[in-house]
Design goal:
The protein is an alpha/beta fold. It has a single domain, classed as Ribonuclease H-like superfamily/Ribonuclease H (Nucleotidyltransferase, domain 5), CATH 3.30.420.10. The protein is about 40% helix and about 20% strand. It has seven helices and ten strands. The strands form three sheets. A six-stranded mixed β-sheet has the order 7-4-1-2-3-10. Strands 5-6 form a two-stranded antiparallel ribbon. A two-stranded antiparallel sheet has the order 8-9. A hairpin with a 6-residue loop joins strand 5 and strand 6. It is globular. The mean pLDDT is about 90.
Length: about 290
């Protein structure tokens, strides 16, 4: 019997900013009801109807984010969860091109992220993909591309019989968009997509905030904090710092201090921050026809 997984995806900063990201949050399909119920309970206990990264600018949303993080970190260690995030820099040599087509580029980044995330699970697993709805994405083509890649086979040589066997990478059962306001798992993906892009864009500012906050012996926002940071930035710095500390204490291999932003050295780890870099000289973002 094939193992079955479900992956929810959401994105952050897809237009008009330098650093952009997509998160895929996956777990065994048999746990769908319990995962949804637990995340919905966190939302209700936090008095938050829908969590969105862009709303994280108050204590209420901060507390909700911290509860999401604590639960997610524990489940990544013990319950078969994976959180995979791709971040890309629109100023690098791949993206800094004339008439860049951000819609098609999103599609390519989505494909790269999901292909890699799905291949890190058991071979031949069956998948359901539930991305947050984006009306301008060609989901049918993305589904066809992932279906094709999933049919690739990995070859093994038997150590005794010297015969070669093969298994399919994965089977895509369904790709269907959902509305994030009714899917707590999408909202968790939104949190980690936002956290990844924020850590990259605000890296030098986070370092200064943390130094100042440590001098004050408090990492929590206050009205007397550094006036150069907005209230929203201070709230997000606290969430970022808390997440990095939880990953460190749980030895999940997520680093914040190595480069000043969230990254994962070993992509096999259950929480994986992947900063996309051009794969070869001809790797360029798609462009629009003038």
């Amino acid at each position: 019997m094939h193992v079955r997984y479900v992956a929810y995806t959401d994105e952050s900063n897809i237009t008009a900013v330098r650093y952009r990201s997509i998160c895929a949050f996956s777990f065994p399909l048999e746990k769908l009801q319990s995962v949804t119920s637990a995340l919905q309970g966190i939302l209700q206990n936090s008095d938050v109807t829908e969590f969105k990264w862009k709303r994280l600018g108050s204590a209420k949303y901060r507390f909700c984010a911290l509860k999401f993080i604590d639960h997610a970190v524990n489940c990544c260690r013990q319950s078969g969860w994976r959180i995979d995030v791709v971040v890309w820099d629109t100023h690098d040599i791949r993206h800094d091109v004339r008439n860049r087509d951000d819609r098609k580029n999103f599609e390519r980044m989505f494909f790269h992220l999901l292909k890699n995330a799905m291949c890190r699970r058991e071979l031949n697993a069956t998948w359901q993909l539930l991305p947050d709805e984006k009306l301008d994405v060609d989901w049918d083509t993305l589904e066809d591309c992932l279906q094709s890649v999933g049919k690739w086979r990995k070859y093994f040589e038997h150590p005794l019989l010297n015969e070669t066997f093969s298994e399919q990478f994965f089977r895509l059962e369904r790709l269907q968009t959902v509305h994030s306001d009714s899917e707590p798992a999408c909202q968790l993906a939104d949190l980690f997509a936002g956290l990844a892009a924020f850590s990259r864009s605000m890296a030098p500012h986070y370092a200064r905030w943390r130094r100042d906050a440590s001098d004050q012996q408090s990492l929590f926002p206050s009205t007397s904090g550094n006036p150069s940071f907005s209230n929203s930035e201070r709230e997000r710095f606290v969430v970022l710092d808390h997440f990095a500390e939880r990953c460190r204490s749980m030895t999940l291999g997520v680093s914040l201090r190595t480069r000043g932003y969230l990254m994962t050295h070993n992509p096999e780890n259950p929480i994986n921050f992947w900063h996309y870099e051009p794969q070869h000289q001809l790797d360029r973002a798609p462009t629009r026809n003038e």
